[in-house]
Amino acid sequence: MSPVTGSTSATKKTTTTKTATTTKSSATGKTTGGALRKGKKKIAAAPLKSKAESKKITNPLYEKRAKNFGIGQDIQHKRDLTRFVKWPQYIRVQRQRSILLKRLKVPPPINQFTQALDKQTSTQLFKLLEKYRPETKKRKKTSFKTPCRRTS
């Protein structure tokens, strides 16, 4: 039904080309050919040839048959079971460490402790830290017994 006129008449579309005029009916979907300018008729398209299906003759001894993996039937193929292997502890630890280092976003002040110092710097650091070590009980006892000196 057409929204403008309210009728159900079939509409026709006309297309013009350089060689022929064709009219297509939207109701039937068929195309009617028009006359060519030079007076020649259009040649009908050749009918499609059906391809003959050729079947290969196969030996029944070599036919592929479906495998049955039930109990007592065909043997299943080997699978990759490396995920289920009980790996040595050092391998597990190094794998877990690498995963953790990839996942964690460590702030730089903490990350600096993942790298060791060289020998010279480490000895200087330990000498400095030795001065700030808390007093032992023995040292504390001797410091209380000795009199304090005034500095001024």
TrEMBL record:
Any one cellular-component term (Gene Ontology): cytosolic large ribosomal subunit
Origin: domain of life: Eukaryota
Similarity comment: Belongs to the eukaryotic ribosomal protein eL8 family.
Compositional bias (Low complexity): 1-35
Region (Disordered), start-end ranges: 1-54
Source organism: Rotaria socialis
GO molecular function: RNA binding
Gene3D superfamilies, alphabetized: 3.30.1330.30
Segments traversing the membrane: none
Cited InterPro entries: Ribosomal_eL30-like_sf (IPR029064), Ribosomal_eL8_euk (IPR001921)
Keywords noted in UniProt: Ribonucleoprotein, Ribosomal protein
Function: Component of the ribosome.
The keyword Ribosomal protein belongs to this UniProt entry's keyword annotation: yes
Protein name: 60S ribosomal protein L7a
